[in-house]
Amino acid sequence: MDTSSPSAFVNGALLRRYIGQKVRTVIQVIGSDTGSVVGKSTDDLQIVVRGSSPPNPLTTYLEVIGIAESDNSIRAETWTNFGNSFDPQNFNELCKLANGEFKHMFI
């Protein structure tokens, strides 16, 4: 695991705290167009991801690591297909823990 450039675990609501910083999230793909993917965050907010080319073909769930550009957009550096079966609630709880009481464990 590369620890030289850590990324914050975020859901849709937490994204606004990290504008201009490196983040990591999982989205459920709603649609895609040339150069962008629209997805639903694990807390049911819409996120637009732009940047390097996403994997082809896309699976239902996609991990994105990149720079938060706004409260609902990320410029992707890395995309990883997470398959068609994923528990978004578990990831959502991880985001809450990583930004709350246990934040010190994720720095």
UniProtKB/TrEMBL annotation:
Organism, scientific name? Capsella rubella
Key words of the record: Nucleus
PANTHER family in UniProt:
REPLICATION PROTEIN A 14 KDA SUBUNIT A-RELATED
What GO MF terms are annotated? DNA binding
What's the protein called, per UniProt? Replication protein A 14 kDa subunit B
Q: Which residues form a coiled coil?
A: none
This protein's GO CC annotations: nuclear lumen
Transmembrane helix as a keyword of this entry, yes or no, is: no
Where in or outside the cell is it found?
Nucleus
Does the record's keyword annotation contain Nucleus? yes
